[in-house]
Amino acid sequence: MGDPPRRPRSLFLAGLAAAYLAAFASLYVQIPGLYGRDGILPARRVLRLSGKGLWEQLRDFPTLLWLSPRLGLDTELGMELLCLLGVLASFGALLFESLRDSLLFALLRVLYLSLYQVGQVFLYFQWDSLLLEAGFLAVLVAPLRLLKWRSTTWRAHDGVTFWLVRWLLFRLMFASGVVKLTSRCPTWWGLTALTYHYETQCIPTPGAWFAHQLPVWFQKFSVVATYVIEIAVPLLFFAPVRRLRLFAFYSQVLLQLLIILTGNYNFFNMLTIVLAFSLLDEEHVGHWLGRSKKRHTSTWPPSLRSLLSALTELSAYAFLLYWSVQYFSLEINWEKRLLDSKVAFTYHEFTTWLRAVTLPLVGLGFLSLSWEILFAMYRCFCIRGCFWKLWATLQWGVFATATLGMFAVSLVPFTYIDYESNGKLWPGIHQMFSAVERFQVVNSYGLFRRMTGVGGRPEVVLEGSYDQQTWTEIEFTYKPGNVSRAPPVVAPHQPRLDWQMWFAALGPHTSSPWFTSFVYRLLQGKEEVIRLVQTDESQYPFSARPPVYLRAQLYKYWFTGSTQGSPGPAPWWRRQLLHQFFPTVSLGDPALESLLGQHGLKDKTPPRRSADALLPRALRALRRLSRPFSGPTILWSLYLVAATIYLLRALGHRRGDPADRGGGEKNGQVRRKEGKEAEEKGEGRARGAADGHGDGGRPPKKRK
Question: Which residues of the chain have pLDDT under 50?
Fold first, then answer.
């Protein structure tokens, strides 16, 4: 039985703090334009006073923003306060291990859930739900240091709660692979999805242009690799062989790094890698840090256990290779020097297989969890001292029950991949899920279900005019517009308006009601909304005076080819006008007024609250200080500060090492003897310390 994974848990908590930092800081810079008094979707519209008491409001609509009036804040300033508290708490947890506490992660989750409740369409992304679910698991996984008189590095039950992180990663990846095939999208079934993906994703990076130029056979093989990593490899998350779990870890990290290079998906890829830390063990992370323990040298003949592990590992690799070749008809074409591939099964065969394996996969997860629970119980029995043994067993019972409950509730969204299996679940599990659904404790996932923009990337381009004769395009900071401008790199910041503009282009403007409000605010010349379009207001063509008329055109965009040439700077895009997306409107236009009234977006701006109180004045002062800086600038500045502090700490530790090594060499013989004696006499003591309880508060007697 290996060492408890203290370091992987610490990496998970630090990485989750970094993801929270990105989420809070990125949202903070966008609050005035998205949710402010004169924003696109003012948050005050969501929090309507209904005459209910505070606790009833919190029960029906759980958000701390109900407390804003009691602090003398409007809803916008309340959101800014929650974001700033989240930035401060997550930045502290990222820097200091002592702050990676269960209470602090509970605070972070409550803060983000409060924002999520009023975020409306701009916060309804799968990674927001994923962050909330991972944040809830962190409350169970993180140690409770702040309220304990005694520091606990590892508790006997921590392996049980940490297993839930691995289960979340499995649900995320397996479902994301399966939905690509259950959607019946012809590009996923034809293995041609990536020939469209790089240019049709929301905000591509410069790397996406280069990836788009790769040959078709390689793009098809990349889709096959995606299926293998998302559907087959996740089964290895629960493998009993350590090297198989490490192989699964590096496979997932490779996929996420490739996505980072070719697309701006904010903190999602970072968060997925953070979840993958649950596949690591203490020894492997120690090897990264240069602090791994010396492993026993291999002996010949090998033990039965190592022989079985090697055979299991080779069998798993052989099965993955056979499965890939068999079901995707992989064949080397020596004449054309390429690798041919195609799907060798039908939709009916796949859905039959999925129906057959969904509930057995639930059983596999239950067996893996049961092993963790039994292993944790064994650790409780190894603790010395009757009181500490009973205390550890009591904690084990509580957290094992909570983990089993979380596992049971998660089965409802997991089995959405096969509704027949979902219907076979015990009705009580469905009732438990319904009771916690509004708290975003567990969620369903399935990324890139269908490939959009197969005939070209649809893109909405806004145009403004003073006389309806001369029209000027309104360029966004991040989303494609000018064909000569290179795609940006903005992750982990998420420009949420640019993302929704991408979704709006997929249908008529009536299916995106917020777009009418967006046009209305631009006609009014609202500064905070303009900053969502252009962070540098001097680049906004109507900065001096708002346009009198606005309209929106729908274009199709394509990446240029590597062989295309043109005079002047080489363009990244080519485009073609399709039709008008939004009609020409102006302030007071009956058509605009009708659309605003139809979507319930026309209401009077309430009077501004008095800013005499200290808290509103402080929040507005911080807003003025941060206004000149963009989201990526603020985020990377915070990460750079954190990296600098980590580097200084590492240099400080290294500077102290030579003295320690010198002392060890001078008294090496004595130290070796003491170490050997301690190793012989303190095995039980070390085991108790590994469980986080020392020797039950009772120091061992010294032998003469």
Answer: 149, 659-704
